[in-house]
């Protein structure tokens, strides 16, 4: 019976280690991506039209189509939806 509990506890510990490691892997670099600012872009100098943008940092990649009309950012379309997208952000 002791052997069974040792094996069971070992499997539970292994599962926990894999789970915690997966969480750390999936969230790696997320804080850097969330804190990006667009200070270098002056929209008032852009002509009306559609622009394509791309961001690639580690495992985080985004591609967007942006529409500027009357010097105002009017539309942002996400071209490549991430696997874990949030409808409130991508709709």
Question: What does it look like?
Answer:
It is built from 3 helices and 3 strands; from the N terminus they run H-H-E-E-E-H. It has 2 domains: 1-35; 39-91, no CATH class. It is of the alpha+beta class and 91 residues long. It has helices spanning 2-27, 30-34, 87-90; strands spanning 49-57, 60-69, 72-78. It is rod-shaped. A 3-stranded antiparallel β-sheet has the order 1-2-3, with no helix packed on it. Keywords: Membrane, Transmembrane, Transmembrane helix. The chain crosses the membrane at residues 7-26.
Offer a concise description of the structure.
The chain has 91 residues and is an alpha+beta fold. The chain is 38% helix and 29% strand.
What is the residue-mean pLDDT, rounded to a whole number?
Answer: 82
Contiguous helical run count: 3
Structural class: alpha+beta
**H-E order:** HHEEEH
Radius of gyration: 22 Å
Strand order of the largest sheet: 1-2-3
The unreliable regions are none
Shape: rod-shaped
Secondary structure: helix percent: 25-40%
What's the total count of β strands?
3
Keywords: Membrane, Transmembrane, Transmembrane helix
Transmembrane segments: 7-26
Secondary structure elements and pairings:
Blueprint: H1 2-27, H2 30-34, E1 49-57, E2 60-69, E3 72-78, H3 87-90
Antiparallel strand pairs: 1-2, 2-3
Transmembrane segments: 7-26
Keywords: Membrane, Transmembrane, Transmembrane helix
